[in-house]
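We treat protein structure as text, and this decision shapes the records that our systems exchange. The remainder of this section carries one protein's record, kept here as part of the documentation:
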Amino acid sequence: VSCRVDWSAVTLLNLHVAIRPSLPQPPTITHQSPKDFIIDPRENIVIHCEAKGKPHPSFSWTRNGTHFDVEKDPKVLMKPSSGTLVIDINGEKAEAYEGVYQCTARNEHGTALSNNIVIRQSRSPLWSKERNEPILVQVGVSLVLQCRPPAGLPPPIIFWMDNNFQRLTQDTRVSQALNGDLYFSNVLVDDTRNDYICYARFPHTQTIQQKQPITVKVLDSNPAEERRPSFMAPLGQSSTQMVLRGGVLELECIAEGLPTPDISWRKESGDLPSGRTSFHNFQKTLKIVDVTEADAGDYRCTAKNSLGAGHHIIKVNVKAAPYWISAPRNLILAPKETGILTCRVGGDPKPTITWSVNGVAIENSPKDVNRKVEDDTVILNDVQTGSSAVYQCNASNEFGYLLANAFVNVLAEPPRILTPPNNVYQVITNRPALLDCASFGSPIPSITWFKDSQTSILSGDPYVIHGNGTLEIHVAQLLNSGKYTCIASNNLGTKENHVYLEVKEPTRILAQPEYKVVQRNRNAVFECKVKHDPTLIPIMTWLKDSGELPDDESLTIRDVTEEDEGTYTCVMNTTLDQDSASAMLTVVGGDTLHHSISNRLKQPDPPTDLELTDQRERSVQLTWTPGDENNSPTEKFLIQYEDLLHQPGVWHNLTKVDGTKTTAHLDLSPYVYYSFRVLALNRVGYSQPSKASRQYRTNPAAPDENPTDVQGVGTEHDNLIISWKELTGLQSNGPGLQYRVNWRQKGVEEEWSSETVANTSKYVLSGTPTFVPYEIKVQAVNDYGSGPEPVPVEGFSGEDLPMSAPESIQVLVQNVTLAEVHWEPVPSSTVRGRLQGYKVRYWRERGLHQGAGAEGRQEEAQALSFSGNRTQGRLPGLQPYSLYTLNIRVVNGKGEGPPSANHNFETPEGVPGPPSFLRVKDPNIDSLTLEWGPPQENNGRLTGYTLRYQLGRTEMTLPANETTVTLGNLKYSTRYKFYFNANTIKGPGPAITQEAVTVMDEGELYVDTRMAAGDLTGLLQVSRLGRYSRWGLDTSKENCGFHGFHLDGLVGRCRNDLTTIPGILPLGFNANEAAMPNKQVDLATQGWFIGLMCAIALLILVLLIVCFIKRNKGGKYPVKEKEDAHQDPEIQPMKEDDGTFGEYSDTEDHKPLKGSRTPSNGTVKRDDSDDSLVDYGEGGDGQFNEDGSFIGQYSGKKEKDTHEGNESSEAPSPVNAMNSFV
């Protein structure tokens, strides 16, 4: 009968499943809710229970120790293929489901149990009603303001604020204690206020309650005297405090006194633990995390001021809830085998251990004569097929309990080999070779190896068969190449596999590059001849001072300069090994004088006559005779050595001595076959090496040093890989170099475990608990003894994914784009690794304006990581007035844990985005229509739109449900710019703009002057809707061939009256009858027009000056009397918006002129026009200058009839006079 103890059953089971998924397996709990589960009464209750097994297990629950019939409660749902319960508390009270729950997962091979999960509803009771009387206190005395919040679940977070929700300033004099009370070491007059308010924040319900404000009045009528410190909390000279192992110890000392005392801490029996100690609340609180038994003892806090000191001793007792030393592990046993389950736990007081089988107490289960229970151990002898079961170990004391499931799976499986067949392993000569033979079976297969056609089993030197079946050849030689057969066998069968080993020749540099001394601007060539195994592909690389150069067997450096000086190394790489060699390049000067000197300078001749004297165990003296210096003094001697035992043919630098010396004292290492040579160095370079000295062998000895860079890192959740840097042959000090690997779990009183290995730089420790600290030592050992005692280093077994997610998530929205999320840190025991931080994923569900039922496009989730043991973080870049969802995961070195329950929050309203578009439709002479689209980002509830135009002087407010508006009473042919924005209750958003021009149908009229009797010389006037336009005419010069005029800018569909001044040609017409439409051009934007206006303005200024001079000299203008008689205040210069000349208009814009109707025959009667040239002249004779142009007597307009309602009292002025010249 074979016995198996602490076997790596999980790994083997995984191999089984990988090969044959149908293999039976008892249930294993894979995920469950925490033991103490505080629920939010506003959310559904989810109690997790997941398990695996073959066949897949079924699930059931107990509540408060009795069966919980899930199917009878319509509010309770069990997820398919899972034991997870979802309890819908909608319309129910969460208290109805409080209790102790336990999940059972069973299949035909056993039953596994979850922890007892205590479900409690979070509570935030109201503050009891009270009336606080004002507190009167004298200056300098101490004071305590009590908070005494209601007991909540979990306990609330306490803070003090004023009426303005500002935190009260705290310092060494005023501070908040751990219980929430506010302590004053001494009060000042400034402490008088009526708004000392204690707030309690209940994290689960996200509610904050406040105590009634406390009024404090500080009187200075009888101030207190200065005094030495005394303690306010805790009271007396000593006190006692208990803390649990692994928890957080918080010790508090608050003292009163005047002046304000300072607090300091020390431990009576030793130093405060480094790395785990911190001080808070102005040194009044001492905090120690991850408490161990060593933290028990007396802690002294000292309060000191200028008048003296006070002391208080806090006696700390460390107790321990049960914790694992070695949890029971799953066993896979073959029939007739023996297995042992061990449940080793620690705790104070010592835990009580009980065993169960398939959820039934072992004393109440069916008797099994092959089973024996001895306290923390269960021994299973001669197991039988069909006796698979799940065993539960429960360890408990007054501070808690541990529950572990471990299955015993009885299988009978023939061997299987997992290593792929016909694998080819390649190694370099004299290197170790490892041939794998991974297998599984039940019973565990035995592994044997054969080579080629030999029938003998490979064992003993140079072969080693490891426990996992791997065959190791310590020093592979060419003769070890060939075919190897691995055979795995148990009592159910045999399986074999073939692999191949190829031992390759090493890569060697036969001719290494030589030291070069080259003159400036010459070429330097380095050669590197290499030998390698012909079946391997070599790659040559050249390096200069570690920088890479082109690849080739030779390296040529052309036109060298001083920048080319340095060390050049050729490196030959293959897929299995590499070799390298280096040489130095020195560049000497290139001018004529230096050139002639350098011709006489050469590198030194090599030293000769090497001799070894004063030979000792660890040292020897080397002497030599220098060679010729060749006109350059020797600066240094370089001593090199060759180790003929470990690295024949390779020379290493040993030491350098001054060029004036011819001896050197050499420190040696044991177990080395030394040969020495010497090189001389002058300004030109190194000499050739001297001939090698005779061989000098040092005796073997125990190692002088241990491996360096010792580390312990886990790659899986149940292993620890101990690695180190191997010693070189020179450091081994003797034959048989091995490494003794020692380890033990840190903080656990157990002996060192040890394993000795050779020709490797790592050792894999399997079956470790997840992420626990280990003390590790690696010691060098050879045939002559051990190295020095190594210093332990700390390593950690492998990490596993975190088990739990953060709870008590609270989101505080700072503004429309920023929120601050808070959470409670997860217990360190659930991190199961090195905490790297927390990852918050959040995404926008929809805009709040869309409504709860809207199907908004869910945006891609964003993720922010917050490193370290943070409990809060900020979420930037949020969109206003939106519903967001977030969850939080714990991150360790293995990865991310499960997400927390999704948490929703809303952002407040903000200003909206710009409207999506603004279009102009149906432009007309005096109206147009604007059409717009709502903003793509409402960012709140739209309250309307704002439209501004006419340079911001006109503003309209439009309702939010409108998308068009028609604007009337606009000026024709005018460019408008519109500014349009949306509004919410937070204000206006950014505006968009649009420009538009009201329509003007323009026409052109050709007037044939030959239809008039005589020359048409004078002024042509058009009356349009009561507005007048004038053109100066001159047809007296026949040589121009000019018989007509084109009149532009006439408005279609309007009545136009045309007369000539002095009235020779009266005409009446409609512009759209004789005019062709012509697109309006905005002259105000034309460069030529701007230049013309500037010239006209300059001309007007000159004429004004002339007029004033004439007037001052007493000159009389023939038009002066006409101006006095016919004043017309509405004569204006040419307008920029329509390009007409001297337009006459009523003072009321667009008011029709009475008496300007056109007869039906199309002619204009004399009396129909009140503004002809006859009224302005004397007998019709107009004044012209020498070229026949009109001088412009018409400086004013005659008085209108009273029925036209357009009188003016404006006096004539030079400006009005000059307007007629335009």
Remarks:
- The CA atoms of residues 170 and 376 lie 53 Å apart.
